[in-house]
């Protein structure tokens, strides 16, 4: 499978905060039959404003993943979404998905939830900048300390 490595799961990021699960189902259902869909955060609380949402879709057929990737940069509501295959085919729970997104500790879709990081524990990745000029920076405190 080109790009998808046999996975049936895709991660969709840069989703407008007002997007609903039904809208995502309609948008991504054009690609193929959906087995499971999760849109995070699930609870909408006015005291905790949401800047962006994240969605995971599991298709019945792995061939849908390559097709779904073609939706990357499609403007949905008011944002260009990013669709990336999830290696390992596992949809993370809400806490894990939001924690990873908030910490900027992964490049969307490139993380396998069953494989530990190969980086030393003190090395971290973070996302810097504002959309659409975000970049992933890897920081090693020991290297920074030594210039």
From TrEMBL:
It comes from the Eukaryota. One of its GO terms (cellular component) is nucleoplasm. InterPro entries: Nucleotide-bd_a/b_plait_sf, RBD_domain_sf. Coiled coil: none annotated. One of its GO terms (molecular function) is RNA binding. This is RRM domain-containing protein. It comes from Anopheles maculatus. The lineage of its organism: Eukaryota, Metazoa, Ecdysozoa, Arthropoda, Hexapoda.
